[in-house]
Amino acid sequence: MDRDAPLIFLIAGEPSGDLIASRLMVALKRRTDNRVRFAGIGGPLMAEQGLESLFPYSELSLMGFLEVVPHIGRLLGRIRATARTARRLRPAAFVSVDVPGFALRVARRLKGAGFPLIHYVAPTVWAYRAGRAAEIARYLDHVLCLFPFEPPYFEAEGLDASFVGHPLIEEPIGEADGPGFRQSLGIAPAQPVIAALPGSRASELRRHEPVFAETVRTLARRIDGLRVLVPTLPQNRAAVADMTASWGAPVTVVEGKAEKYAAFAASDAALTASGMATLELALAALPMIVCYRVNPLTAAIARRILIVPHIAMPNIIAERRAAPEFVQHECSPERLVPALEQLLQDPGQRHDQIESFREIAARLGRGGPPPSERAAEVILDVIGTGAPRFNGR
């Protein structure tokens, strides 16, 4: 180990952050000819790149939820210990990836420690709590943003911010063999297929299942030969298979990224709950209908604090209603069936969505350097060991 190589102190606390941070580590190694060291907290993918985590990163997934209460003492101890370790190691840079509930508390304790404090995956100050940008500007030195509209929110508070692109553009979305996947499932080339994504959380599945079920049943009576593909997580497969058995149309439940992307490529349209899936569908250029339901109290609170006009990320990025949205009482079979039927049968509407999604993909960074490479370049520039080669703003 080259002890003169710059040390990067990393924090990631969930699988998505572990993936983003591991790709960042690969990019940093590539840009420094492996003259870089790592310390901090992370998961198995970061371990593959040489990180020895200070403690199991799964502990950080509690931050921000009611589960934190019984563990508050231990978590506060972890925050203090992590900050002490970072001060002792004096890294070239401290880089936290998401998990703001934990990571930003550590960063706050490190203010003035003599090394730059960088946060990757900017807090969503544009959706609510706009004042949070000013709050974190008091102790952070740089924010790496996933969306092109984010940097001005932080720059207005004197905090340097760079748009590096969304990690999803490093996934092979849009590259799957749709016709081949159809053939493997016995679906004819001209047979109508929809992808149904009711959500990944148990609460989302519970709220959306009755609506999705009646929507599919009604649609199947109107459209001959309709097939439904339902991508889900491995831990949800059994529940989703039971749930979809009474949907009134042939349903195939798939799991894993490869099959999910193949399902997108094999489908003609999608019915999806709002969430990360909307960005995946946009990158797959699959026309969609977006819906979402929460309990009435949550909806009332959301209406008071949200400051964006849309719920689907593709629409927020496009700054217009690129895909139809149906929220709360509008998330009903009476509204969803005709919207899906029109989307399946109207080439003009499908074309407009696809063109919008291509524009969104470009805004997210597709066609340029991978986000991990952009992030590595910004970090090396901040610590003074790299020359910028792109305009990250």
Name the CATH architecture of the largest domain: 3-Layer(aba) Sandwich
The class by helix and strand makeup works out as alpha/beta
Q: What is the molecular shape?
A: elongated
Name the poorly predicted regions.
63-67, 386-393
H/E series, N to C?
EHEHHEHEHEHEHEHEHEHEHEHHEHHH
Question: pLDDT average, as an integer?
Answer: 90
Rg to the nearest angstrom?
A: 22 Å
Number of extended strands: 12
State the CATH class of the largest domain.
Alpha Beta
Structure write-up:
The structure is a single chain. 44% of the residues are buried. The two termini are 34 Å apart. It is elongated and about 65 Å long. It is α/β, with parallel strands linked by helices and 393 residues long. Helix 1 packs across helix 16, helix 3 crosses helix 4 and helix 8 packs across helix 14. It has 16 helices and 12 strands. Helices cover 44% and strands 15% of the residues. The C terminus is likely disordered. The protein has 2 domains: 174 residues, Glycogen Phosphorylase B (Rossmann fold); 186 residues, Glycogen Phosphorylase B (Rossmann fold, 3-Layer(aba) Sandwich), CATH 3.40.50.2000. Strand 1, helix 1 and strand 2 form a beta-alpha-beta unit. The chain has a 6-stranded parallel sheet with strand order 2-1-3-4-5-6, sandwiched between helices.
